Amino acid sequence: MRIETDFKLDFKDVLIRPKRSTLGSRSEVDINRTFRFRSGIDWTGFPLVAANMDVTGSMGMAVALSSFGAMTALHKHYPVEKLIEFFGREDTSNVFFSLGTTESDREKLAAVKQHARIDKICLDVANGYTEKFVQLVSEIRDENPEAVIMAGNVVTGDMTEALILAGADIIKVGIGPGSVCTTRKMTGVGYPQLSAIIECADAAHGLKGYVCADGGCTVPGDIAKAYGAGADFVMLGGMLAGHDECEGEIEYEERDGERVAVGMTFYGMSSDTAMQRYSGGVAGYRASEGKTVRVPYRGPVTHTMQEITGGVRSMMTYIGAMRLKEVPKRTSFVMVGAQLNNIFG
Ligand code: 5GP
Asked: Where is the chain membrane-spanning (predicted)?
């Protein structure tokens, strides 16, 4: 047994220190980035990704976020016909096709590729540390030489490097920070997310790869911190749940004789809810590592996206970063004991 004694940090442990700058207004800053991937594909946009969860990784979300230049990783449970139709109809340069490790996921990808171009692939498993997963990444790379491949999830530099060397362009970082994740509770395994981003970004950038910070953002300031820590992309589940564009069931209540939307069910992809839905229950050898919650109904996602983009822009003016790419260079984190005044809840 070994103990690492250097302290690892979460979003809640730090704040970003303001810096002198010549920037006058938040309208002067550019929240878009251009990436050139090893596969030769270029992409420009606001590097935020809706998580490939049932509720948030919807086709409706993909269309809505695209209007902000942001991306969506579609969940992997769409029927093949629907995917063919969607990829054939829409501009999908902001859309990831998601797959897990099953043969049927791969067959689905092959079937859709016969009808439409798929140039972004999200390949993810709860635990990206197995040899089998590294092997799978390299097979998917061989089969899709021209696609951008995002793979994960991992939380350390060594595994980030291994997945990039196996052919991934973007490494998805995060084990246990998610809003509906119970991995840390069930297994005791995890890594504080801010430190995970810093360490994985360092490893990825050394190999000309990128990282996507996945999970744990609860407010726009957390997204700002993720970019500051070196995240090239940030993936959101919970912050995008509860909107009209989601695939969750909206719950209604009678209020003064009127039927009003009040909430939506949101659940982890390894929760009992998801396993019941797709695998007919939780297999005997495993426990669920996700929970099911009710989130408030929040209307169209446009408002939330404006809050997020506004928060990121404002952070950039505080630290004097004209472009999103400059943010990590201009970020100094200060460690804090407390960061919010909660007197009014
Ligand atoms: P959030 O933005 O809600 O904090 O985190 C979203 C991320 O949580 C997802 O992208 C995914 O990586 C992770 N996640 C989703 N469902 C589950 C689950 O059931 N269990 C665990 N451990 N993680 C989950």
From this structure: none
Catalytic residues: 181
Q: How far is the CA of 308 from the centre of ligand 1 (A)?
A: 19
| DSSP string across 6-17 | SPP--GGGEEEP
Instruction: Confirm whether residue 219 is marked as ligand binding.
Output: yes
Largest CA distance in the chain: 63
Q: In this structure, what are the phi and psi dihedrals at residue 68, rounded to the nearest 5 degrees?
A: -100, 5
pTM to 2 decimals?
A: 0.97
Distance 156 CA to ligand 1 centre (A): 18
Locate the ligand 1 atom nearest the alpha carbon of residue 270 and give its number.
19
**At CA 79, angle to CA 235 and CA 85, rounded to 5?**
85
Segment 203-234, tens digit of pLDDT:
999 999 999 999 999 999 999 999 999 999 99
Residue pair 191/6 in contact (Cβ under 8 Å)? The answer is: no
> ipTM value of the model?
0.99
Token readout for 295 is 């989130």
Q: Where are the domains of the chain?
A: 11-245+294-335
What single-letter amino acid sits at 329? K
pLDDT tens digits, one per residue of 32-89: 999 999 888 999 999 999 999 999 999 999 999 999 999 999 999 999 999 999 999 9
CA-angle at 127, arms to 125 and 133, nearest 5°: 65
234 marked as part of a ligand binding site:
yes
* 11-245+294-335 CATH: 3.20.20.70
325: DSSP letter: G
116 among annotated binding-site residues: no
- β strands within the chain, DSSP E: 14-16, 33-36, 42-45, 48-50, 71-73, 95-99, 120-124, 148-154, 170-173, 210-214, 233-236, 250-255, 258-267, 292-296, 333-335
